[in-house]
Specification:
Layout: E1 9-20, E2 23-34, E3 38-42, H1 49-56, E4 64-69, E5 72-73, H2 76-79, E6 83-86, H3 98-109, H4 117-123, H5 139-152, E7 157-161, H6 169-184, E8 188-192, E9 205-208
Parallel strand pairs: 3-8, 3-9, 6-7, 7-8
Antiparallel strand pairs: 1-2, 1-4, 4-5
Helix pairs in contact: 3-5, 4-5
The structure holds adenosine-5'-triphosphate (ATP).
GO biological process, one term: cytochrome complex assembly
Organism: Oleiagrimonas soli
Domain ABC transporter: 11-211
Amino acid sequence: MTTENPPTALLEAEGLTFLRQDEPVFGPLDFALCAGEVLLVEGDNGSGKTTLMRVIVGLLRADAGELRLDGAALDRELSRGRILFLAHHLGLKADLSPLENLRVAVGLYGCREAITPEQALHTVGLQGYEHEPVRQLSAGQKKRSALARLLLVPADIWLLDEPFANLDREGIALVNRLIERHADAGGAVMVTSHGAVTFLHGEPRRLRLSA
Ligand SMILES: Nc1ncnc2c1ncn2[C@@H]1O[C@H](COP(=O)(O)OP(=O)(O)OP(=O)(O)O)[C@@H](O)[C@H]1O
């Protein structure tokens, strides 16, 4: 008889609840995110998708419940180098170029092997814009500049808040490729989107938040 081990959850939530003025924004929520998985977080405007990601990365504190990383209680120290959050606000310094922004990110969070900031910018289609101040880039180019961090900074769990916003068709395809490659390499992705998400390997799992 062969026994298959169940997939190990990288990230788990149990009874996770967040309140504002004593009213639940979300929860209690239970979910698990395993290596190789993509979890699509769905819900109407204001249903708490961004709030959930901010709680996971420790920018907000949950009112109840638990978050675990590899089975241990999650804190900011533990999430360092493991969880990468691409927020709706991209966290780019407007006066710096895409290349300078990436160098700052690498200085803070480290760099994957066998890739340079220049190569990452090329992959996201920003060749020729490496040295432009970010403030002079279009909205889609800014988004691409932030996406380049995914290629460079080491992390096995990606939290992507509206990664398709402002991107053209080719940019949307690029994000889908990055997500798929990351999952195929054993990473895990939690993604919010109001738009179409198309993965070559079928439907992602879904977590629905209700407003
Ligand atoms: N800084 C804040 N102060 C007070 N309330 C907030 C704050 N940020 C968000 N909220 C409220 O929390 C709720 C959840 O917001 P959140 O941004 O998580 O929703 P969302 O699902 O990401 O929405 P969208 O689809 O519009 O991006 C909303 O009712 C929102 O008004």
